[in-house]
């Protein structure tokens, strides 16, 4: 009689991770993934746009690294932005079949599950007990950092499956050396390429910690360092050669190509750090822009910190645990930024991450994002502790050698060890998993009539549209642009573009229309304006080659902007849903 088929354990673990991810985004799937999406900030719309752009390039051709569909006619260097091109290609079938909003909702649901699963596979090398590795994956894929940024739809920071696999391949090359180094090198090169097109910042962070980890291993195992480097050299060389060949042009394009950025992406990057308080207190004070890495993204909790310290002493001869705790400490030090913050005030005490703020290309790294790897290595250390405790290895606390264990005593011991593992998980991991407000809140998305009906539908492909409120204030028009197949272009947009001196900005060139729109947003626009202002508005529209102007109602200053444009351009061509539309003489219909 044949044995019944049992699914592999990793498949069950995958389903558990996926089930947790669906709970996280329950409001999306219960309400309908085509009409619900992440709320909380304007970033999710940008990510939807990036996913749609990848499909647009696959269908119509063109340069995937550059677009004029935003900030027309100058355009946007997409590699200078978090354009998640690899994810756009991966989810292109979903985008083609169901639209970019559904594709985005699928991606944000899969992000924590795949990240946790990748960490599970990587940690299994050091913790053979599958439940321990499962907990380690949970700490990474659903941990404080990922949970915080997932709330804002940051796919480039929450689709974290690649870094653990990179660390795993490096471990194979330098430590385990059980398989062909050339084959491992090919896999490494492929992983580096994919990660570049998910997030260049995360790739840089991964490489910084990988190099740091290799240096730590070399210093702590000097007698083996030369042999390990010699054995790993062929595979490492192949991997770097493949990645370098494929990424040479994209790296040039990002750093020096059309519309590239000079200097750091954000001028206050040095302040976007973790703090000592945020590590032990939920909602700890944090400097900088909150949604970039705010909330509880740096939270570890006192129980987990104490466990790591105690475990480092108890299992001080355990190489994987020593390495995991050490790397967690290094990543944590990096997350504190160039100077120490205990709470929000800056103590101005210098820290090693100061160096990154003064290196070309690395000066755009946000220090708090080292927290991704704090969660990973802390999860690895936690998994190793659980694995050792479950196996009865209590390190320096072990019973004297040679003492026999009778059968009843063994059963009691097994129960006690299992209970200890459960207590460790509850004490260290459950508090951080309970911090996020799961399931996350979502918002409705409904395309206004003005963007799917005439007269915009009659504009020729490539026509440039400018709207009020500006897209940087209300970026929903980008949703309707990609839902319609990117047939027209926006004068402004939601991306990082070069401004004065090539430094980053999100604003299009300033002209009369920009000043009118800014006054409208601020509530200081007073109509009517002088005749000279009417002439400047007409000149600005002509110089920007605008085909249409759209003013949607309901926002601050909409009525005043409509009045000013009517004075300068005449009565609107059409009104739909209360929105005024001017089709300009230069447009192609």
Note the total helix count. 25
Structural class: alpha+beta
What gyration radius follows from the Cα positions, in whole Å? Answer: 27 Å
Report the mean per-residue pLDDT as an integer.
88
Q: Outline the biggest β-sheet.
A: 5 strands, mixed
Number of E strands: 13
Distance between the termini: 74 Å
Strand order of the largest sheet: 8-7-11-13-12
Share of helix, binned: 40-55%
Categorize the overall geometry: elongated
Low-confidence stretches: none
Strand content: 5-15%
Provide a concise account of the structure shown.
The protein has 589 residues and is of the alpha+beta class.
Structure explained in plain terms:
The protein has 589 residues and is an alpha+beta fold. It has a domain at 449-499 and 506-583. Helices cover 54% and strands 7% of the residues. It is built from 25 helices and 13 strands. It has helices at 9-24, 26-31, 43-60, 85-90, 92-98, 100-123, 130-141, 144-150, 155-158, 162-176, 181-196, 200-220, 222-256, 276-280, 290-293, 302-314, 319-335, 371-390, 407-428, 430-434, 449-452, 476-483, 512-522, 531-543, 558-569, and strands at 36-38, 66-67, 76-77, 339-341, 346-350, 442-444, 464-468, 489-490, 497-498, 504-505, 546-551, 574-576, 579-583. The strands form five sheets. The chain has a five-stranded mixed sheet with strand order 8-7-11-13-12, covered by helices on one side. Strand 12 (574-576) and strand 13 (579-583) form a beta hairpin. Helix 5 (92-98) runs antiparallel to helix 6 (100-123), helix 7 packs antiparallel against helix 18 (371-390) and helix 17 (319-335) packs antiparallel against helix 18 (371-390). The longest helix has 35 residues, at 222-256. The chain is elongated, with a radius of gyration of 27 Å.
